[in-house]
Amino acid sequence: MRYMHNNYDSGIFNLVTEYENNTKLGLAIFLEEFAYKQLIDYYEKEEQLDKALDVVEQAISSHNYSVGFYLRKAELLIDMGQVEQALCTLDQANSIAPAELEITLLRAEAMTYSGKSEEALVLLLPLKSEVNQEALSEIYMVEALIHEYREDFELMFYCLRASLQENPRNEVALERLWLSVELSRNYEASIKLHEEIINEHPYSSLAWYNLGHAHAYLGNYEEAIDAYEFAFVIDEKFEFAYRDCADLCFETKQYDKSLKYYHELLEHFDADGDLLLRIGQCHQEKGDFDKARKYYRKANHLDPLNDEVYFHLGQCYAHEQKWKEALRYFHKAVQIEDRQEEYYEALAIVYYELKQYEKALPCFERANEIAPENSLFWMNHAAFLWETGRGEMALELLEEAEDYAVGGELIFARIACLFYLGRRQEAAYWLVEALEEAYDSHTVLFQLISGLQDDPLVTSIIADFK
Fold first, then answer.
1. What residues contact 395, with CB distance under 8 A and at least 6 apart?
2. What is the sign, positive or negative, of the torsion defined by CA atoms of 355, 358, 361, 366?
3. pLDDT of residue 1
4. Whose CB has fewer CB within 10 Å in the chain, the N or C terminal residue?
5. Angle formed at CA 209 by CA 205 and CA 211, multiple of 5 degrees
6. Who contacts 99 (Cβ-Cβ below 8 Å, separation ≥6)?
């Protein structure tokens, strides 16, 4: 089964330069097989498949009895969607090495993409009794690919599991397995499988990584973090393990631990805007806005069109009540991405703080328009309306909100609005109804109208309900 070579000798770049210069000059090119393989791998990794195909054609011309180059050509043609040409190439390969298993595996893959998946499965069936465990692992992998193409993700998972049971060291199967787990939602089965692999091969970083994913999806966050940590301790160049571990620490509010792993990422890999943004968010959550801004500005330097960076810079200034600076950054975020409801909500709040109420109103309205299902935006909009003397408008808004959003918070927000308007008898009636329906949300009343928690009518109704 084919896979992508990710590691190159430093001399590959000299080889590529020499090859491309000779090609431009129209000079005849003859290289050793290993050099051709390096060039093909390089162009394939860079997703320059046309160039990879040109190289493999020259390799076949120079080494026309090397079956490996015919196989690489077939792989490239399949990836480029040229299935019929791939099948012709496999026929040529078969004339050189008729017993080569890889030819049949690639033929089954090509047949699948040409709509002959059932025939492809039949082609593979007799091979299973004739090969060793390692080859059987490869056959199961191709079967998994066929089932993936047919969108039978359950069978895809079982074939990849069978592949790993035959050869637990099959890294390509381990890489493909997680996709099948996500698509089939076989998280518990994935945990069992990877624990079995780890018991046999405790230094399999991919197995630990997949185990971490399965635990994370099941909400076993500490087990997931432990598994990710094993993955990058075993392989210190395992970038995704660092990232997923750090991200999960962030999501579970373990900001110091998250920062530790983000900084280890900086030590081992080149910085990128998303990484610097995450570091800034950790510092922001810890309340260190100066450090947060420092990393946000670094992220902005690498990616000046990242709207999240501007939004979080605005949040830092808003936390410090530096409203004009916050306004400037929220505006930049909206200019880049105008479909994020929280950006408009943030703008509305800043305009409110600056007492620019007529500018705040359309921002609240835009947030509701983008995310009508979010009750919090409706409530904040309503609170703004009654705080600026538009209580009747607030009540109408909350009645409209019930057509789009659900939740006890909206009911209590409407009751708060009735109290604000002085319609106490009506408010009291609905309060009794609301407490029976959604008692746990009643504190919304006190968040929206300060002092209501000391109102004798309100306290007596809540006490009677208890």
1. 382, 414, 417, 418, 421
2. negative
3. 36
4. C
5. 115
6. none
Question: Which residues of the chain fall below pLDDT 70?
Answer: 1-10
d(CA 161, CA 194): 10
Q: Which two tokens stand for residue 146?
A: 């066929």
Tell me how many degrees the CA angle 277-280-284 measures, rounded to the nearest 5: 135
Phi first, then psi, for residue 146 (nearest 5°) are: -65, -45
Residue 370: the pLDDT is 98
Are 41 and 80 part of one and the same domain?
Answer: yes
Q: What pLDDT is recorded for position 10?
A: 60
Angstrom distance (rounded) from CA 379 to CA 420: 14
Q: Which residues are within 8 A (CB) of 52 and not within 5 positions of it... i.e. 6 or more apart?
A: 39, 40, 43, 44, 76
75 and 41 in a common domain: yes
Given this model, what pLDDT does residue 303 score? 95
Amino acid (1-letter code) at residue 160: L
Structure-block tokens of residue 216: 């994370």
The strand ranges marked E within 244-305 are none
Q: What is the pLDDT of residues 259-307, one digit of tens each?
A: 999 999 999 999 999 999 999 999 999 999 999 999 999 999 999 999 9
Q: Where are the alpha helices (DSSP H) in 320-374?
A: 323-336, 341-353, 357-370
Cα(356)–Cα(401) distance, integer angstroms: 24
d(CA 406, CA 437): 12
Which CATH number is 41's domain given? 1.25.40.10
Distance CA 294, CA 283 (A): 10
H-only helix segments in 167-238:
171-184, 187-200, 205-217, 221-234
Amino acid at 321: Q
* Boundary residue ending a domain (116, 143, 158): 116
Q: Of 314, 342, 371, which residue sits at a domain end?
A: 371
CB of 62 within 8 A of CB of 31?
A: yes
Helix count (H) and strand count (E) of the chain?
A: 27, 0
Residue 144: partners with Cβ closer than 8 Å, 6 or more residues away: 155, 156, 157, 159, 160, 163, 173, 176, 180
- Measure the CA–CA gap between 330 and 315, rounded to whole angstroms: 8
Output the pLDDT for position 9. 55
Same domain, 2 and 110: yes
b or e along 304-342 (b: 16 or more beta carbons within 10 Å of the residue's beta carbon)?
A: eebbbbbbbbbbbbbeeeebeebbebbebbbebeeebbb
Instruction: Give yes or no for a contact between 262 and 282, defined as CB atoms under 8 angstroms apart.
Output: yes
pTM of this prediction exceeds 0.90: no
E-strand ranges in 247-341 read: none
